[in-house]
Design brief:
The structure is a homodimer.
Chain A lengths: L1 H20 L12 E2 L5 E6 L6 E5 L7 E3 L1 E2 L4 E5 L6 E9 L2 E3 L7 E4 L2 E8 L3 H4 L9 E9 L4 E9 L12 E5 L8 H4 L3 H10 L7 E5 L33 H4 L1 H11 L9 E6 L1 H12 L6 E5 L18 H11 L3 E7 L5 H13 L5 E5 L5 H11 L6
Parallel strand pairs in A: 13-14, 13-15, 15-16, 16-17, 17-18
Antiparallel strand pairs in A: 1-2, 2-6, 3-4, 3-7, 5-6, 7-8, 7-10, 9-10, 11-12, 12-14
Helix pairs in contact in A: 7-8
Chain lengths: 389, 389
Amino acid sequence: MRNLFFLILCFLWAGIANAQQNVGFRKGNIQSPEINPDHSVTFRLQADKAKQVLVLGDWEANEGKGEMKKNKAGVWEYTTPVLPSEMYTYRFSIDGVVDLDPVNPFTKRDVGNIFSVFFVDGGYADQYQVKDVPHGDMITTWYHSNRLQADRRLSVYLPPFYGKENKSYPVFYLLHGSGGDETAWVELGNVARIMDNLIAAGKAEPMIVVMPNGNSGKQAAPGETAENHAYKPVMTNQLPGYKNGDYELAFPEIVQFIDTKYRTIPDKAHRAIAGLSMGGFHTLYTSINYPTYFDYIGLFSAGLNMTTVDQTLPAYRDLEGKLKGLKQTGYKLFWLAIGNTDFLYEANQTFRKQMEAVDFKYVYHESTRGHIWANWRQYLLLFAPQLFK
Amino acid sequence: MRNLFFLILCFLWAGIANAQQNVGFRKGNIQSPEINPDHSVTFRLQADKAKQVLVLGDWEANEGKGEMKKNKAGVWEYTTPVLPSEMYTYRFSIDGVVDLDPVNPFTKRDVGNIFSVFFVDGGYADQYQVKDVPHGDMITTWYHSNRLQADRRLSVYLPPFYGKENKSYPVFYLLHGSGGDETAWVELGNVARIMDNLIAAGKAEPMIVVMPNGNSGKQAAPGETAENHAYKPVMTNQLPGYKNGDYELAFPEIVQFIDTKYRTIPDKAHRAIAGLSMGGFHTLYTSINYPTYFDYIGLFSAGLNMTTVDQTLPAYRDLEGKLKGLKQTGYKLFWLAIGNTDFLYEANQTFRKQMEAVDFKYVYHESTRGHIWANWRQYLLLFAPQLFK
């Protein structure tokens, strides 16, 4: 009886707090999304007055599109085919207004949009979620770039036990694509979970992962600069400094900052760099302009459409000569990954021929599908275990 | 001509990348919210088929409610009265479906819901945004609690120049309320910006701010534990371990972890603790159970409704005796803040009488309004400058 009284008080209190805080709790008993035992996924939405509701997701089946039907309880519902294990994003289109699933509290921002998110277990996605293993630290910090004349923000993952052991660590620089920023690999790439899980399983060496902001005309992600909300997310080609080579040429400032601030092993054998899309482009030109810096280099769906590059700029001139330079200096791994339906597929094949023409050794990985985060997470899962061994 | 060609290629590339990445850029030219020069705010939504659209926000005027009207261009629109400077959250109700503003990329999660967010400048909100000042680091890390038998996550702010100077810092422990977690003060409290701005202005001492997770039955925020999405945000009274006193009694484990990991000044004169709502309750019982730990104590809209407390539990028994104990040990500041319409107002007045009955000195601050983040951010702005001086 005393417990019952206590419980009633608790709920009463929660109710009042609610009203005042406007936290507007998820209403009713609608569960969405529901991951079914067969790994199909059911979405539900209470929208009494809507005429048409669609699910728009990033899975392959039916191109991620599903027409929802009103069920007997007046709730719109749709069940996907069986989905492979992945992290998926989706939104609802409610009579043409595209917005979040209002009962799903888990979201991710991708460039200018917010998506609802869910995981289908039993494969890749197990690596993208939290397991009961030791966890590293996630840090946002700021370095000063003399070349870019700005304090700039970056994300840093420190491996479990960093600072507890009298030990220094190798460093992996991981670069985002156009429209991304220093939060992209953390949020959409699930870097902390992937690294925690790979390290705990003994598949990857404990390492520091550094994720800088690759938009050289900006100091940080939208909302994190002194422009605050006046700077909204856009693709990087709409920002100043795009492909002028300053970012790549300024990269040693980041390495120096990290080597000063953290317990690193500050040599080439203990440095890796990789990036997706525009970040793959940045990776190529950073590594070949500074051939003494990185022993491990990864290009994920790299933006190697060289027709958009001004090859008279110091950073971008003499690709062939610089490839030869890196070949001469030496490196342990140059890894090129691309999906077979990626719009950059042909550009990557052209670049393979350029490398082969100067007998520049590389490892090629071809996956299915296109220019998508599912591929980039999987490339990270394949690339990180090859580092520092 | 060459530049034009380059531009066309860029946009073409962005277009294709878009299609493949499904980043689904903000469509059209709708701007929402628009902060008008007079500090009224206009919201806009493209919803051709909707019958009724409301804005539901957390400003005072009209209780944050606004009925949108379709304008000549077929866009729903509503303009608020002039709003005082603050960070505001809002959602749209579109024919009864309550969801984000789809063209605003800036969001915050409060307990179980995602809100669109904006700032009105010219007052308090200037402190909650990024300025061109030196920035501290934001960290998420994990400590082990023997008493709670778990690795547990916490958020840490390190002041600018930490580690660059041969210097140690005082520590401020800042606790969230029911339904919150280690991300609440960071996201909704804008702690990093507030501390950066106060420190840069010389108003607050450089200090470390530690924001633990106060849900003793959970290791971390929803989505950050090995339960992943199976653990959805709820008010803390729906979680195991609520108000059993374990969290308060286990608190020295957090202090020890922080004093080991960071450059702290590990004594009472250089430690503060404060919390909002449930966190104010945690603050009270942590500080009086450990009277040698904190010289600065802050209760923000504290959950002092003692009828819901089992006063036979070791942490909660003998409130009067423990107040006398802290009085005897000594402290520099005991600061109590409450809004005059807060549902906990009377409970806080009762507690004032309890303190006065044992001649326990405190400073009282009464604000307008109720149990809301606007008050808690303002209390932080008032409390932090009083510390370590």
